[in-house]
Write a structure and sequence with these properties.
Helices cover 68% and strands 0% of the residues. The protein has helices spanning 15-36, 62-83, 88-106, 111-133, 138-159, 161-168. The longest helix is centred in the C-terminal third of the chain and has 23 residues, at 111-133.
Length: 171
Amino acid sequence: MKNRLQAPGYTLRGTGRLQAKRTKNAITIFFLITLIGCQILPKKAEFKKEPEIEIAQEEISPFSQYQAAYVYWKSWHKELIERLGVNSLKDKQCFRETIENLERMSRFLKKEQKEKLDVYISSLSEIKEKMEKKTQSPSKIYNFKKELERIEREIEREFAPQKAFKKTIAY
């Protein structure tokens, strides 16, 4: 006769074996953890740094460097003219970049051409100082824009890479 407390279809046989198997597995896991220790297991996707390979860079010609500085100057100068007086921080950045690129261009010029370019750099610096002193009226900003446009035309005429490279570049 079946025990009423026992669920149908289950017998009490073999429960000792199951319990012994569980105990054996628990002891095995305990010893494995003890052997490994508390060290963090390595991540699966750990990226190894590849050794950096130094590639010899080609020397850039003076014409290419001059041309790059000219293009950067031209774009910053145009942005300066378009946005002058709108945002003082942007004005400062445009003036700084414009002057830096003109100075970079002057490194490749002969002495007499360098002196001509320095005149334009100093006039840009003067306009920059006037703009930084105080808030300017719209009429003064208009005058500054006209002066900047005049400077742009003269620099384009005298220092364009295609026209002036053979005469002005000192290599």
